[in-house]
Inverse folding.
DNA sequence: TGCATGGCGCCGG
DNA sequence: ACCGGCGCCATGC
């Protein structure tokens, strides 16, 4: 997939966004999207670590979402459900990085190039983003990932091979990596 | 502006 | 193999 970035979107001038949630196979999942253009702003897997509201505050997302569901949101839920069920390895969802610095956006883009079922180290991601040596900051940037799963920050691990941190909890990170390992060879 | 803060990397014991 | 300590660098206050 080819992510299209809206580099100059001002978060203060955002249109009224749609927000919804559903209970996926593993966790409750929140998402915020916009219909035209068809972009997705936020995907958040709930966890014992952090609530959705805390996540919104921590990332300074300042969203103005209206609870809403339509055909588009049903499609989003289906896509995510397919991924979590091992039936999909490439998202058709187009993220819009309306928050984040230039550095963070580069890191998120670099992370999106990691194929399903594969991992990369924080150092490798920093290098791919064009900031060799900023691997420590790359970790922080991934902690600010607004679009979980679509930007597969769970595929970024430590150089040592250890799993590293994850905003949704390290157990969830391990679960997602195991899921991808299980299905990577089964899918075409 | 300077300084503390992080989803890290590396080396030595 | 497992730590602790130090170095690393973009951000935010």
């Amino acid at each position: 997939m080819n992510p299209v970035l809206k580099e100059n979107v001002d978060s203060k001038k955002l249109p009224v966004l749609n927000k919804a949630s559903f209970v996926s196979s593993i966790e409750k999942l929140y998402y915020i999207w916009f219909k035209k253009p068809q972009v997705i702003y936020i995907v958040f897997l709930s966890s014992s670590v952090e609530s959705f509201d805390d996540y919104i505050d921590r990332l300074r997302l300042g969203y103005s979402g209206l609870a809403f569901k339509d055909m588009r949101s049903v499609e989003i839920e289906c896509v995510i459900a397919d991924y979590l069920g091992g039936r999909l390895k490439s998202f058709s969802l187009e993220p819009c990085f309306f928050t984040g610095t230039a550095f963070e956006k580069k890191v998120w883009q670099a992370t999106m190039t990691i194929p399903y079922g594969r991992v990369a180290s924080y150092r490798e991601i920093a290098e791919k983003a064009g900031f060799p040596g900023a691997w420590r900051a790359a970790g922080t940037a991934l902690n600010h990932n607004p679009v979980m799963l679509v930007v597969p920050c769970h595929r970024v691990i430590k150089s040592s091979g250890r799993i590293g941190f994850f905003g949704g909890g390290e157990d969830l990170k391990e679960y997602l990596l195991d899921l991808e390992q299980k299905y990577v060879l089964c899918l075409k």
Q: What stands out?
A: Residues 101, 103-104, 126, 131, 133-138, 140-141 of chain A lie near DNA strand C (CB under 10 Å from a C1').
